[in-house]
Design goal:
alpha+beta, four-stranded mixed beta sheet, 3 helices, 4 strands, globular
Length: 82
C-alpha cells in the first residue's frame, strides 16, 4: 500500500492494532512498547501513539507477523530486526 495515495486514519489504525499482539512506537529517542494481548490499551491511547498531527497513520508503519511497528527509532529497529 502506498500511504501517499491512500491515507489511513483512526478506524483503520485501530483495526491494525486489533490484529496485532504487540505495538512498538518510535518517536524520536522515545520508544513505547505495548503488549496488546496482555495489557489492552484504550482506543484513545492507541490512536494517540499511532496517528500524527494530521490525523493520519504515522510513517513508517510496518506489520511483521503479529508485531505492529509505527514511526522510526534506530535502536528500536535494531532490536527488532537487527
Amino acid at each position: 500500500m502506498n500511504a501517499k495515495k491512500e491515507k489511513l486514519q483512526g478506524p483503520a489504525a485501530l483495526k491494525m492494532a486489533s490484529e496485532s499482539n504487540e505495538l512498538f512506537v518510535g518517536k524520536g529517542k522515545k520508544v513505547v512498547h505495548l503488549n496488546l494481548k496482555k495489557e489492552p490499551a484504550s482506543n484513545e491511547e492507541i490512536l494517540k501513539l499511532m496517528l500524527g498531527p494530521t490525523g493520519n497513520l504515522r510513517a513508517p508503519t510496518l506489520r511483521v507477523g503479529k508485531k505492529l511497528v509505527v514511526g522510526f527509532n534506530e535502536e528500536m529497529y535494531q532490536g527488532l530486526f537487527g
